[in-house]
């Protein structure tokens, strides 16, 4: 993305609480146009709340969400395809009636694409939505989101109800949509294997806060996994430790460092995506990233 292009999604200082409990706590990040961004966080991290705010479906207590430069709300709905964790479809309608409704409600609806996706998913078009298996219901919700030809797709754990074959198929469909139409995707998940090789950007949330928002490739080059025994990690000096875990005598730490460590006491390697994400997912308190003393 060139620096002067408006991001597909811009979240600034987003804050929201439920009954005095903070679900979102000052979240800020951008999703570049045409990118696939994974929103990663453990259960209760705030992903769904953030997705709903991004879709313009709830009014946050504070902060701002802009979609292609415009405040999220009614005016941006036509540019967004949103699939909630529990997709909101009409259970009494058949699949065919649901697709026909999509056609009536969405000015940019692509009928041929909708039918192709339904055929690929072996969707039983005469079945009532309420009688569909969870995997088919999720795929129907995805078809409804894709066929409206959105600029921004917000997918809240879309792969969770799917079997491994369907997961691979849906991932392929998303990648093809991104390649063919330049669709921007924000995809939430807590399954790292589902996003590996799919996303080029990641946002990691814990406790309602954004811990990391970055392009994947440079982030891997800007971190190291360091392993040492006991106080050997003192050799890191002022290097920022994101998180550290002790197993037996050894401490394994994810540290922020672009330069390799000199040969010596500490063993190190560049993190895999899984190591990078797990390191940030373990960040707990509001004061983190933190220095760890061993
Ligand atoms: N409607 C609601 N009423 C009360 N609390 C809520 C509501 N929605 C979310 N929360 C709370 O807000 C916090 C964030 O929830 P959210 O569903 O956004 O997290 P999540 O990262 O999507 O979790 P999961 O991966 O389990 O779906 C949690 O503590 C949750 O219990």
From TrEMBL:
GO molecular function: ATP binding
Alphabetized InterPro entries for the sequence: AAA+_ATPase, ABC_transporter-like_ATP-bd, ABC_Transporter_VariousFunc, P-loop_NTPase
Origin superkingdom: Bacteria
Positions of the ABC transporter domain: 9-232
SMART domains for the chain: AAA
Coiled coil: none
Pfam families: ABC_tran
Keyword Nucleotide-binding listed: yes
Keywords: ATP-binding, Nucleotide-binding, Transport
Protein name, UniProt field: ABC transporter ATP-binding protein
UniProt source species: Paractinoplanes ovalisporus
